[in-house]
Design a protein that fits this description.
Largest sheet of chain A: 5 strands, parallel
Distance between the termini of chain A: 28 Å
Shape of chain A: globular
Low-confidence stretches of chain B: none
Structural class of chain B: alpha+beta
Radius of gyration of chain A: 18 Å
Mean pLDDT of chain B: 94
Mean pLDDT of chain A: 92
Strand content of chain B: 15-25%
Distance between the termini of chain B: 30 Å
Number of strands of chain B: 7
Oligomer: heterodimer
Order of helices and strands of chain A: HHHHEHEHEHEHEH
Radius of gyration of chain B: 18 Å
Chain lengths: 212, 237
C-alpha cells in the first residue's frame, strides 16, 4: 500500500499518531502538500463522511478521524501557506445569540475543515452584528448559524436581514441548522441553505460556493 | 429563604447508554472499545472537574407571575403560563457544575481532542440536567415530608428558553433567586455562566395540570418532543 493510501486508512481508523508519522514521511518524500491534503487527508475524511451519512459509523468515530486528520493538517499547513494554496473557502460559524448549544456547530466546523475549508468559529451566543462583521473582515463567503432553542431561531433571520441591509445578500451566503430548524424555516427567513446534519451541511456549503 | 443544594458527582453521572444516545448512537448498538473508553474517560474527567451545587427557593404564584412575565418577550401562550396559576406550590431553582467542566471541554477542543471534548460535553450537559432532576425530587420530598402533597400531586420543572418561555425570563428569575451565591452569573444575552447550569421553576400540583397538548405555536418547530418523555415519566410514576 502506498503511503497516501495508508493515510486514507489511518484517517478512517482515527489513528492520529500514525497519521503524523505518515504525513511527515510523504513530505520528506517530496509529495506535494496539495496532493497529501487532497488524496490523503481529505480523501480519508470523505470516506468517513460517507459512512457517517450511511449511519455505519457514529459521531465519536467521525471526531476521532478528524483528530487524526488534523494531526496531518498541522504538519501540512505551513507548507500549504508557503505554496500559496488557498483553502476551498472561508466559512464563519457560530451558535446564535442566546444559544449556548454548540456541539452541532463544532461538528460542522470540524467536518468543513476536514473538507478543506478554513473555519472562523465565533463560538456560542454570537450577536448578528458579530457574525456579519467577522464574515466581512475575514472575506468569508458563507456564514453558518446553529440554534437548538426555538426561542433563539429568530436571531438567524436577523443575520439574514443584516446582510441584506449591508448590501451583502448573495455575496455572503447563509446556511442554518440545529434541532428545531427546518428547510421550511430556512426559506421563511431567506437563508440560502439548510443543513440537516453536519455531513449534509458540508455538501450544502460546497453547493453554495459551487464546489461539488 | 433559599436553600443551598449539595450534590455528589456520583449521583449525577449519566449512564453510558444515555450518553451514547446523546451522541447519536442508538441504544443496543455495539460500539468499539475506543468509544467505550471515551465515555469512561469523560466520566473520570467530570468527577475531577465538577463541583455541583444548587439553590432552591419557594415562590408564590403572584411573585412568579412577575418573574414569568420577564421582559415581555414570551410567546402569547405557553405551557408554564397556562399551568402555574393552577399549581399548589412553586419553587425557583438553579444548579451548576461549576466552571471547570466547561474549561476542560474547551481545552480538549483546543488540542483537537474532539471526540473526548464532545463526549465530556454530552456527559456534563446530562449531569447538569440530572442535578436539576435531583433538585426537583428534593423539592418534591420536602413537600411530601411537610404534608403538602396528595397522591395525585405531580412535580415537574420548566426552564426559560424552552417552550415559549423566553430566555430573557432569566433576568427576573435571577433577581428573585440570587444564584450568584452559588457562583452563577447572567450574560447580557441571558445565558448563564458557567455554561453547564440549569435554572427554572418547579411546579407542584395535581399531575393533570402538567398534561398539556403539543398544539402551541412553537411546538411545530420542535422536533425533540422531550416534554412527552417527561410527562410519560410523571404519569408512569
Amino acid at each position: 500500500m502506498d503511503l497516501l493510501a495508508e493515510i486514507v486508512t489511518g484517517v478512517i481508523n482515527g489513528d492520529d499518531e500514525r497519521i503524523a508519522q505518515l504525513t511527515q514521511a510523504v513530505i520528506e518524500q517530496g509529495v506535494s502538500p496539495k496532493s497529501i491534503l487532497d488524496d490523503g487527508l481529505i480523501a480519508g475524511m470523505n470516506v468517513v463522511g460517507e459512512r457517517f451519512k450511511a449511519h455505519t459509523i457514529f459521531l465519536p468515530d467521525v471526531l476521532l478521524a478528524a483528530k487524526a486528520m488534523y494531526a496531518g493538517l498541522d504538519l501540512l499547513k505551513p507548507l500549504l501557506i508557503k505554496e500559496g494554496i488557498p483553502p476551498m473557502g472561508r466559512v464563519v460559524i457560530g451558535s446564535v445569540r442566546g444559544d449556548l448549544h454548540d456541539i452541532g456547530k463544532n461538528l460542522v466546523g470540524i467536518m468543513l475543515k476536514g473538507a478543506g475549508f478554513e473555519i472562523i468559529d465565533l463560538g456560542n451566543d454570537v450577536p448578528p452584528e458579530a457574525m456579519v462583521e467577522s464574515a466581512v473582515r475575514n472575506e468569508a463567503t458563507v456564514i453558518g448559524m446553529s440554534a437548538l432553542l426555538t426561542t433563539t431561531m429568530p436571531v438567524m433571520g436577523q443575520v439574514v436581514q443584516l446582510l441584506s441591509q449591508e448590501g451583502l445578500t448573495g455575496k455572503i451566503k447563509t446556511i442554518v441548522g440545529g434541532a428545531p430548524v427546518s428547510g421550511e424555516f430556512a426559506r421563511e427567513i431567506g437563508a440560502d441553505a439548510y443543513g440537516f446534519d453536519a455531513a449534509n451541511a458540508v455538501d450544502r456549503v460546497k453547493s453554495l460556493i459551487n464546489v461539488v | 429563604m433559599s436553600d443551598i443544594l449539595e450534590f455528589s458527582v456520583a449521583e449525577l453521572v449519566p449512564d453510558r447508554t444515555a450518553v451514547l444516545e446523546n451522541q447519536g448512537i442508538p441504544a443496543g448498538t455495539a460500539v468499539s472499545q475506543q468509544i467505550q473508553d471515551l465515555y469512561y474517560l469523560a466520566c473520570g474527567l467530570l468527577a475531577e472537574a465538577a463541583a455541583p451545587v444548587g439553590v432552591l427557593c419557594e415562590i408564590s404564584a403572584s411573585a412568579f407571575a412577575h418573574v414569568y412575565m420577564g421582559e415581555g418577550r414570551n410567546e402569547p401562550r405557553t405551557p408554564v403560563g397556562d399551568i402555574f396559576e393552577r399549581a399548589d406550590h412553586l419553587a425557583l431553582f438553579a444548579v451548576t457544575l461549576g466552571e471547570r467542566p466547561g474549561q476542560e471541554i474547551g481545552s480538549r477542543f483546543e488540542s483537537n481532542d474532539f471526540a473526548l471534548a464532545c463526549m465530556l460535553d454530552s456527559t456534563a450537559s446530562m449531569a447538569a440536567d440530572k442535578a436539576a432532576a435531583v433538585a426537583e425530587q428534593r423539592f418534591s420530598d420536602t413537600l411530601q415530608a411537610t404534608g403538602r402533597t396528595t397522591p395525585e400531586t405531580g412535580v415537574l420543572r420548566y426552564s426559560p428558553g424552552y417552550c415559549g418561555w423566553h430566555i430573557s425570563g432569566q433576568k427576573r428569575l435571577f433577581e428573585f433567586l440570587r444564584p450568584e451565591q452559588i457562583g452563577l452569573t447572567l450574560r447580557d444575552s441571558f445565558l448563564m455562566e458557567p455554561l453547564k447550569s440549569v435554572s427554572g421553576v418547579i411546579v407542584a400540583g395535581h399531575r393533570d395540570i402538567h398534561n398539556f397538548p403539543i398544539s402551541y405555536q412553537f411546538c411545530s418547530d420542535c422536533d425533540t418532543r422531550s416534554c412527552r418523555q417527561r410527562l410519560r415519566a410523571l404519569f408512569a410514576g
